[in-house]
Amino acid sequence: MSLSPRVTIAFAALAAAACGDIASPVRDDLYEWRLIVPSAAGNDTVHFHWDRADLPVRIWVAGDDVEALPSLMQRAIDTWESVYLYREFQAELVSDSNTAHVIVRGVPAPSKAVSSAIRLPSALAPECGGATDLDVSPDLSQLTLPIRIFINPQATPDTPTLADCLALTSIHELGHALGIFAHSPNDTDIMFADPQVDLPSRFDRATAEALYHLPPTIAAVGR
Known about the structure:
Largest sheet: 8 strands, mixed
Number of strands: 10
Order of helices and strands: EHEEEHEEEEEHHE
Distance between the termini: 11 Å
CATH topology: Collagenase (Catalytic Domain)
CATH superfamily: Collagenase (Catalytic Domain)
Radius of gyration: 16 Å
Shape: globular
Helix content: 10-25%
């Protein structure tokens, strides 16, 4: 599908643009998960979750970048699937990148993403870092697949804390890909910008559940 030229939007700028006219979820156990985008008329929000027709979400992982990455992503899939009572989110690892909804690489995110990408970065920890790129149309109506996830080791393989960092970063970045586009403000949540925990908290779980029970504002296209 031919789409008009797109723009790169820094996630930090988007977060800074959030203001009082965007209604936060009313439940105390939720945090803001939507992408907040500045526009001429004020701020707009992007809300996404996978349609049941797209399930299971197909995830391709480059196993030659980081040897443990496929198993870490399978653990991340199992972790997020366990959140949903009615299997609202399901995913599977696939061997063909050309059919994947999500592509995962164990390399640094490119210094400049494709011109259409909105980047959802995590803060860089000493051991590893992560980022997720979303290809969103200018009118905020379409998300062109695949979503691209980058999980970057920044320490030598024998660093004792590297494995833990890669594991929690895999869960964090998959959280973005399933629809949690914003970061939690709480450092005890896995979706905090620089998570200090290794599994989703009750707030992560409640937010992930809630977003799958509201109509999305954006549709996935292209795969």
